[in-house]
Amino acid sequence: MHVLPTRINTRSEAYRQNREAMEALVAELNGKLEESRFQGNEKRIARARANDQLLASERVRLLLDKDSPFLELLPLAGLGIRGGFGPGGTVIAGIGLVRGRLTMVSASIGTHKGGSVDYASAFKNVRINEITLENGLPCVQLVESGGANLPDQYQMFNLAGSHFREMTRRSKAGLTTVSVVFGNATAGGAYVPGMSDHAILVEDKAKVFLAGPPLLKMATNEIATEEELGGAAMHSRVSGVSDYLARDEREGIRLARDIIGTLKASEPHFEPNGPIDAPQHDPDELLGIVQADIKKPFDAREVIARVVDGSRFLEFKPEYGNTLVCGWAEIHGYPVGILANNGVLFSESANKATQFIQLVNRNDTPLVYLQNITGFMVGKEYEQGGMIKHGAHMINAVSNSEVPTVTINMAASYGAGNYAMNGRSYQPRFLFSYPNSRVSVMGSEQIAGVMEIIQRAKAEREGVPFDEQQFAMIKAMITKENDEKSSAWYGTGQLWDEGVIDPRQTRNVLAMCLAVFNQQAIRGARSYGVFRM
């Protein structure tokens, strides 16, 4: 493979200014991530300490192998949603190593709102379930939750129950779920251990019941204690809901690790063999390369050169359709196909992508999409040249590709370009965004411009003067709203991605995703829908 050269001048003023702007965005990201790590107020944390209880983050660390990487997922879910429990909700979730096995880990933050599930937490659980099933992962759930947050029930009740359904579907597929209950698991939350393959309850701490003493008294006039209704000892010795009675939290976590250790070993599609070469160009330079102002172009090859092993890249059709870069590389030893935008999509670049996606599927190789796209080229010449059908070829290939994919939104992701480059609605296994990125039908200026053309034409048809002052106010409102709702912060709060990442972490994030993909057999598509000729 060819080693990619670099043309970046790290001493230039343009590089320096852009790097400063990107550093500010990364600092903003780190501030929001710090906010998402909130474990509850001091009073609740002190109460947990007095009760010999660990915090959710501490439980996760004890569960994971020493020095295990941890790919945290959806840490900012719910960001900006009014009435929610804050970014990340009341759930910590991610993928790490447990007894050497890549495992999905989900932990209730019992010291924050009692671990109750708000809107964001509920749909974070839904997405985590999707990721767990499609990637064939075992799952450990560290449970301490008061169930649904009642004010949010109207928005989530009808859909959030899929959490329990997906646990049983994973079980059917042979994917183990282990639940460790550290405190309350009440009402619907009682079904989490109830539907797990293995349930571990901590003695004198776990309380698992459909109705607590007050609700029971109201419903049936029966009087019972929490221990009689749902205590760990009762469920271990009487009801059989519990499979293991742990003396304390640490033993519960140790039992979960032991259970994961008994699982049948996975049959990886591929495992790296031998030393891994770092990129020849410094990944730290990505902050000066990726543009904070997404209107400014940058060469996707400069990003690839700082992500792939040894900066080696075998480019496919390098002289053709040059607004899309396609090729083969390795990341931490894992083979991968890469598609990266270097401008608007023309017919040539769309057809090039179509062929490349078919080749990668034939070779059963995962795909990485690096988005920086404003859409397909428009205009009379391009419409008459078949832009629609050529774009359809690409979208057909993206839609019917069966190898696992991960998408990184590096800057703009607009219109049909979002679809062609494997946006959220095209179901990538993972999707991450840079803090400068935007997702929208089109840019704010373009939306405002289109609206102005329409309104001016309307005024002319009706024979009335165009109100410049009024439209200036409307234009400002349109621009402001689109700027806010196309931002990386809004998108990640709405769960449109798995998280916003520092561009310098791209290589490690992709490596973790590829490791997950390769834990099971990979077989690409051998057929597609009809290609319009």
Overview of this protein structure:
The chain has 21 helices and 17 strands. The chain has 533 residues and is α/β, with parallel strands linked by helices. Strands 1, 10, 11, 12, 13, 14, 15, 16 and 17 form a nine-stranded mixed sheet that branches. A hairpin with a 2-residue loop joins strand 11 (324-331) and strand 12. Helix 4 (119-134) packs parallel to helix 5 (153-160).
Q: What is the secondary structure topology, with strand pairs?
A:
Blueprint: E1 2-3, H1 13-36, H2 42-50, H3 56-63, E2 70-72, E3 91-98, E4 101-108, H4 119-134, E5 139-145, H5 153-160, H6 162-172, E6 177-186, H7 191-194, E7 198-202, E8 207-209, H8 213-220, H9 226-230, H10 232-239, E9 244-246, H11 249-262, H12 286-289, H13 300-304, E10 312-316, E11 324-331, E12 334-341, H14 347-362, E13 367-373, H15 380-384, H16 387-400, E14 405-414, H17 415-420, E15 430-433, E16 438-440, H18 444-462, H19 468-485, H20 488-493, E17 499-500, H21 506-517
Parallel strand pairs: 4-5, 5-6, 6-7, 6-8, 7-9, 12-13, 13-14, 14-15, 14-16, 15-17
Antiparallel strand pairs: 1-10, 2-3, 3-4, 10-11, 11-12
Helix pairs in contact: 4-5, 4-6, 14-16, 18-19
TL;DR of this structure?
The protein is of the alpha/beta class and 533 residues long. The protein is built from 21 helices and 17 strands.
